[in-house]
Specification:
The protein is of the alpha+beta class. The protein has one domain. Helices cover 43% and strands 29% of the residues. Strands 4-3-5-6 form a 4-stranded antiparallel sheet. Strand 1 and strand 2 form a beta hairpin. The chain is elongated.
């Protein structure tokens, strides 16, 4: 039995409707994939910056160890607890130093600060938060790296190993 004009038009309309729905589904899938890609790129960039910030903080701890090894009395003993210090590298003399003036951002993004705290020990020579005696040959070193409203902090204890 041949199709009437009306039946033929209805079948033809369903084909167009199917194409529109398929196009919408495919477009939504592509847009979703694009947003997933953008979000993953942001996450990778954020993780990369955090890794760099951690390396910069670790470098700060290594610099403080180096300064301790050079001379405790000249480099670490004069540091005042509660004061923010910056690390400065002099390329001419290949020497590190601490300063209270900000030398600027590292790689144009990161700021690194160093602070020290006195360390107290109890009668068993263990480090305590309070109630002990201040150990003049040990300092708690805290290095903080900040960037774009975020920060990482690394800390360690340094002792005057070489009595220098």
């Amino acid at each position: 039995m041949p199709m009437t004009h009306r039946q033929w038009g209805i079948k033809h309309g369903f084909g167009v409707l199917e194409i529109l729905i398929a196009s919408a589904v495919i477009s939504t899938a592509f847009i979703s994939l694009f947003f997933v890609f953008v979000l993953s790129q942001r996450a990778v960039l954020g993780a990369s910056e955090k890794v760099r910030a951690n390396f910069i903080a670790e470098e700060g701890l290594e610099v403080m160890r180096h300064l301790r090894d050079q001379s405790w009395s000249a480099n670490l003993a004069p540091l005042a607890p509660g004061t923010l210090y910056y690390l400065s590298f002099d390329a001419g003399s290949s020497a590190w130093s601490t300063t209270i003036s900000n030398p600027g951002l590292i790689d144009g993004v990161f700021e690194r600060t160093v602070s020290v705290a006195a360390v107290m020990r109890d009668g068993a020579d263990d480090i305590v938060d309070s109630g002990g005696i201040v150990d003049p040959d040990t300092l708690k070193i805290m290095v903080t790296t900040t960037w774009e409203g975020r920060s990482v902090e690394e800390e360690t204890y340094l002792t005057n190993l070489f009595v220098n």
